[in-house]
Specification:
There is one protein chain. The protein is an alpha+beta fold. The protein has one domain: Roll (SH3 type barrels), CATH 2.30.30.100. About 20% of the residues lie in helices and about 50% in strands. It is built from 2 helices and 6 strands. It has helices spanning about 1-15, 65-70, and strands at about 20-25, 35-45, 45-55, 60-65, 75-80, 85-90. It has a 6-stranded antiparallel beta sheet with strand order 4-3-2-1-5-6. Strand 1 (about 20-25) and strand 2 (about 35-45) form a beta hairpin.
Length: about 90
């Protein structure tokens, strides 16, 4: 029950930041870490999508589940330019 509530809270946090720039740090296995910056494009009931513009001719979309954020497989940070603070989604503290 507590895990379900936490997943809902993570989704709600991400819902409020759709369209904003986010930083991702994702563990892709075998000591590979993806660090990227992109736009939180859309949230769905089980996953969220981030658009990464690597170069002008290609757009990459990556989706992750809210459980990935809960287990820290993916770290999502939102840069609040107004306050100069970076907020990490799903971080309990």
């Amino acid at each position: 029950m507590a895990v379900s509530n936490t997943l809902v809270r993570i989704k709600e946090d991400l819902d409020s930041h759709v369209g904003r720039t986010v930083r991702l740090k994702a563990n892709q296995g075998r000591k590979r870490i993806l660090e990227a910056e992109g736009i939180l494009e859309q949230t769905y009931p089980k996953v969220f999508v981030v658009r990464i513009d690597e170069n002008p001719r290609s757009v990459k979309r990556i989706s992750y589940s809210y459980a990935d954020v809960l287990t820290s497989t993916v770290e999502v940070s939102i840069d609040d330019a107004d306050n100069g603070v970076e907020t990490r989604i799903g971080c309990t503290g």
